[in-house]
């Protein structure tokens, strides 16, 4: 019975989960990304607190998510699956209000994921904190706000396993 309980508990950890978390409206309130999870970022009521991402102008509202890069980043992906506006997802190596850093990865197309293959060198570094900003495209102007749904996959490492 204990083996069955452990197996059920382990399988629940691997099941995809959907969250309707809107993301943080400051670096300090960034929503932590959990692997194998679907998120809906809603910029409708958020402020426009990041005015640019490097050379990319950002006139619309912004929400932000965060994660720590795992040791194995080969299976990393952030894939937008639905949106009701002209969105942009920017993967950035740090977070600051006002002038943000240049993205190391980005997408503005449903089904076009941010993966290791399209992240700027040197890629994700294990143990470093990264941020994902959801905003509108520059061409959409200040009214490019709405919801974008995305799936996040971060490889996980089993830290411990015990059967009593």
Salient structural properties:
164 residues; mainly beta; Jelly Rolls; five-stranded mixed beta sheet; four-stranded mixed beta sheet; 8% helix; globular; disordered N terminus
Short description:
The protein is mostly beta strands. It has one helix and twelve strands, in the order αββββββββββββ.
How would you characterize the overall build of this protein?
By secondary structure, this protein is mainly beta. The protein has 1 helix and 12 strands; from the N terminus they run αββββββββββββ. Strands 2-6-11-8-10 form a 5-stranded mixed sheet, with no helix packed on it. The protein has a 4-stranded mixed sheet with strand order 1-3-12-7, with no helix packed on it. The longest helix has 13 residues. The protein is globular.
Topology:
Blueprint: H1 2-14, E1 17-19, E2 31-32, E3 37-42, E4 50-53, E5 56-57, E6 63-68, E7 77-83, E8 87-92, E9 98-100, E10 105-107, E11 129-136, E12 147-153
Parallel strand pairs: 1-3, 2-6, 4-9
Antiparallel strand pairs: 3-12, 4-5, 6-11, 7-12, 8-10, 8-11
Count of runs of 4 or more consecutive helical residues: 1
The best one-word shape is globular
The domain tally reads: 1
What proportion of the residues form beta strands (DSSP E)?
Answer: 25-35%
**Spatial order of the strands forming the largest sheet:** 2-6-11-8-10
Q: Uncertain regions: pLDDT < 50 for 5+ in a row?
A: 1-20
What class do helices, strands and sheet pairing give?
Answer: mainly beta
| CATH class descriptor name | Mainly Beta
Radius of gyration, in angstroms, nearest whole number: 17 Å
What CATH architecture would you give? Sandwich
Order of helices and strands: HEEEEEEEEEEEE
CATH topology: Jelly Rolls
Q: What is the oligomer described by this structure?
A: single chain
Proportion of helical residues: under 10%
Chain-averaged pLDDT:
85
Largest sheet: 5 strands, mixed
Q: In angstroms, what separates the terminal alpha carbons? A: 11 Å
In total, how many beta strands? 12
